[in-house]
Amino acid sequence: MLDFIVIGGGTAGLSAAVYACRANRSALVIERDSFGGQIVDSPRIENYPGICDISGAQFASDLFDQAEKAGAQFACETVIALEKNEDGTIDVVTDAERRTARAVVIAAGCEHRRLGVDGENELIGAGVSYCALCDGAFFKDKTVAVVGGGNAAFTDALYLAGIAKFVYIIHRRDEFRAEPTLIERAKQLNNVRIVTFAKVKRAVGESELCGLILDKNGKEEELPIDGLFVAIGQQPDNGAFGVELDNDGYIETDGECRTNVAGIYAAGDCRKKTVRQLTTAAADGAIAVSTALTDLFRS
User: Fold this and answer.
1) CA atoms of 291 and 159, how far apart (whole Å)
2) What is the distance between the alpha carbons of residues 67 and 64, in angstroms, rounded to a whole number?
3) Which of 96, 174, 185, 252 matches a 20 to 30 Å C-alpha distance to 1?
4) pLDDT along the chain (299 residues), means of 10
5) Using CA atoms, how far apart are residues 161 and 143, in angstroms rounded to an integer?
6) E strand residue ranges, the chain
7) Which of 229, 225, 286, 292 is nearest to 261 (CA)?
8) Cβ proximity of 126 and 209 under 8 Å
9) Contact in structure between 126 and 139 (CB atoms under 8 Å)
10) 227 within 8 A of 123, measured Cβ to Cβ
């Protein structure tokens, strides 16, 4: 039996594994795709304390190496279910095996919804981004566009307006889900323009993004830009874990990363929270393990 099973091999999951192993506990990290998480796609990280400049791929690689050197084990599998045993342990059932742990940390992350247009995937990290806080600084004095009509899109646009030369907000309708105060603030800025009844058809560029092809009222228009920020929501995938979720599918936790099921904790972007950054993901991983150590391993 393992002490910890961590579901998800991103920043939160690998941080949890490091903390578990440093507490002299066994830890297995299960990842269904590739270790490192979404940060692997980021060309540069400049907002992680103590690291001035590093690529997302290098950051993820270093964190994986740190967890491995600490003693973590790894498995590339898909978790199908979590089952609570009478003795309080948790069975983690995957598409390959059933394992038992005293504590489970869910760090499954969430995926940014994508536009699904030509050129989008090819230009991720080369002008296409899903995080204004992460990548906005790279577009100082440049022209960018934000796609979306909710609070996230307008918050991103207002943030980018203080960095970029000009910001377009592109939305398929003329009605927005964003709060009226955010919309009004955006309208008052000279370097922000709201483009309605427009859909992105294609991202244009070879090695770097240089523009968008829009469907504007049934007609194609080209919009020259340097950066595209997609803000149409995130999508967690927490249905297999049997813990309480909010209306958007995020895991409900207390302030110490406990779920409603004893022995199961949640860390990182998969849990309900307001800030989703590398720093908060790493912090969640540390908090989840520290809480579990107090709850289950100390008497």
Assistant:
1) 35
2) 5
3) 252
4) 97 98 97 86 81 90 96 96 96 96 96 91 93 89 96 91 97 90 94 96 95 92 96 89 95 97 96 89 97 87
5) 10
6) 2-7, 27-31, 73-76, 79-84, 90-94, 98-106, 110-112, 128-129, 143-147, 166-170, 192-195, 198-205, 209-216, 219-224, 227-230, 234-236, 264-266
7) 292
8) yes
9) no
10) no
